[in-house]
């Protein structure tokens, strides 16, 4: 299973992220490529406690849905709902400068993969508490989902 804990999987995501441009076209959903970059940054900020995100978790989300999303070898489907605080059409960060927003995402990617304490005490808004390995699995899958959304 791919995870940002593995060097080669991290390198793959970094390579794919570098291939995204302002001209990248979405294959599904409503976000622009620039909104997607901001969405990924907002998500990392939220799960590391640097940005508030409302909880939408219950026993089903913390068990069956979490296990299915993280460990069943299927790609996440298009058009999954997200929390309003990381939804660029609602409460997420508005895109400003593509290069600067991309650089922020790359910095956050480095943070979550190099600082073993960045997730300490944090809960995923839907999946609840997670181990560091589960966080890095989720981060890989989340980035993979949105990079595929833009053909990368």
Description:
This protein is mainly α and 152 residues long. The protein has a single domain (7-149), classed as Up-down Bundle (Four Helix Bundle (Hemerythrin (Met), subunit A)), CATH 1.20.120. 49% of the residues lie in helices and 3% in strands. The protein contains five helices and two strands. A two-stranded antiparallel ribbon has the order 1-2. A hairpin with a 3-residue loop joins β1 and β2 (128-129). The chain is globular, with a radius of gyration of 14 Å.
Distance between the amino and carboxyl termini: 19 Å
- Compute the number of structural domains: 1
Instruction: Determine the CATH topology.
Output: Four Helix Bundle (Hemerythrin (Met), subunit A)
Oligomer: single chain
Mean pLDDT value: 96
Number of strands: 2
Give a short account of the largest sheet: 2 strands, antiparallel
* N-to-C order of helices and strands: HHHHEEH
Number of helical segments?
A: 5
Strand order of the largest sheet: 1-2
In CATH terms, what is the architecture? Up-down Bundle
CATH classification, class level: Mainly Alpha
Q: In one word, what is the shape?
A: globular
Catalogue the unreliable spans.
Answer: none
- Sheet-strand content, in percent, reads under 5%
The structure class reads: mainly alpha
Report helical residue fraction.
Answer: 40-55%
Question: Roughly how many Å is the radius of gyration?
Answer: 14 Å
